[in-house]
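Example record

One chain of 156 residues, shown exactly as stored in the release files.
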Amino acid sequence: MSPPSLPVSPTASEPWLHGRPPVGARCAVFALLLLAAVTGNGAADRTGEGIRLELKPRICTLGIKDQQCEAHVEASWRANQDESLCLVIQDRPDVKKCWEHYAAGTFTIELVFREDVTFELRDPGLSQVLASDVLRIIKEALRYRHKRRQPWNVFD
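Predicted structure tokens for this chain:
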């Protein structure tokens, strides 16, 4: 019985073994991807960093017979520094609450809706979205459970 053959290492004329790049090339690609992820877009505006928006509740559950969701929603935001911004609801131009030079704020509203609602924190000119969160609707589905086997009784 002969010993199992060992794989042959690539030679200088054969840099690619089985379609895989050499270790050095893989490390270089990984380093470039890591550098791109860490630095991000250097030309991007830094406005909006550190601003967090939170909704309560985050979801609304519709029953089987319900057509729309009714909820008392509280939108709270915090920033690392004083900001001037406005809270708006997408597709609802009548809802707009603005703050000038605040580091936190809260807005409550009674909503009736049939689809997901997106809340956005924007700059005072409403041109740039600084943070956003979505109030989602979950529709309760009928669940038909099929038993794995038919019930039986020895005494019947």
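Notes: The CA atoms of residues 81 and 103 lie 5 Å apart.
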